[in-house]
Amino acid sequence: MHASATQPLLKAALWDMDGTLVDTEPYWIAAERALVESHGGVWSHEQAMQLVGQSLMHSAGILQAAGVNLEKREIVDILSGQVIDRLRIEVPWRPGAKELLDELYQTGVRCALVTMSEGPMAREVVANLPKPYFEFLITGDTVSQGKPHPEAYLTAVERLKYDDPELTADHCVALEDSVPGVAAAIASGVVTVGIPHQMPLPEDTRRATWDTLEGRKVADLGALVVARAAANALDGALLGQAN
Q1: Rounded distance, CA 180 to CA 200, Å?
Q2: Which residues lie below 8 Å from residue 40, measured CB to CB, with a gap of 6+?
Q3: What is the pLDDT of residues 207-231, one digit of tens each?
Q4: SS3 for 66?
Q5: Any residues with CB less than 8 A from the CB of 27 and at least 6 apart, and which?
Q6: How far apart, in whole angstroms, are the C-alpha atoms of residue 107 and residue 41?
Q7: For a tag site, which of 27, 43, 47, 103 has the least CB within 10 Å?
Q8: How far is 128 from 108, CA to CA, in rounded Å?
Q9: What is the DSSP letter of 225?
């Protein structure tokens, strides 16, 4: 994909993992329920939904409140270990995700994984891909503040700028399924697509919403970059008129 005067360049796609690239939420929920019940508690679907898209340490605090009498680090390690064990049996790819990843790779659009799961799990998922689609991984154990804070996405954009100093957030599109993830992406300034899965996303004009990635193409992401550029140009023109 090449830039022109009327076609700004899509330079990078920033992928959430759980719920966007892979359908691991059922694995997480099963692990959470088993852990809470082993401590004599009850874990409801509504409680599980509170954890979708959150940082693991935040989630561990909610599990402590549900009666899990362990340190947060131990909770994270237990849950992650159980999910990794399930991933080694089967990686449940979300519809259209691998196909879109492959087209991005073939057309030279850079990709990064931006997930609140920790490094070992993210590497387990990436190892099951047929090609080195992801240039780098930003994981929950490499940032100090998890989603919905924008640190992970800001870090990804800065990493991309190492090799392309002219790259900005306007050249990047984030793919997210959860409320915290979408909030983090929007706050970072990147173009954002919400693909709701386990939970609905509230109406928000600051993002695009797609029902699925199935059938989506690089051109669809590029169109969002064009729309952002047009909106920025209009805002600039209106500001100039006001002055």
Answers
A1: 12
A2: 67
A3: 999 999 999 999 999 999 999 998 8
A4: coil
A5: 82, 83, 86, 87
A6: 50
A7: 103
A8: 21
A9: H
Q: Taking the CB of residue 17, how many other CB atoms lie within 10 A of it?
A: 24
CB atoms within 10 A of CB 73: 11
CA distance 133 to 192: 20
Q: Which tokens is 86 given?
A: 């399930």
What DSSP character marks residue 93? Answer: B
Strand residues in 29-167 grouped as ranges (E) = 110-114, 136-138
Give pTM, 2 decimals.
Answer: 0.88
Say how far apart CA 177 and CA 195 lie, in whole Å. 5
163 within 8 A of 2, measured Cβ to Cβ? no
Tokens 């049996």 map to which residue? Answer: 89
Assigned token pair, 142: 């490499």
Within 10 A of 232 (CB to CB), how many other CB atoms are there? 12
SS3 state of residue 27:
helix
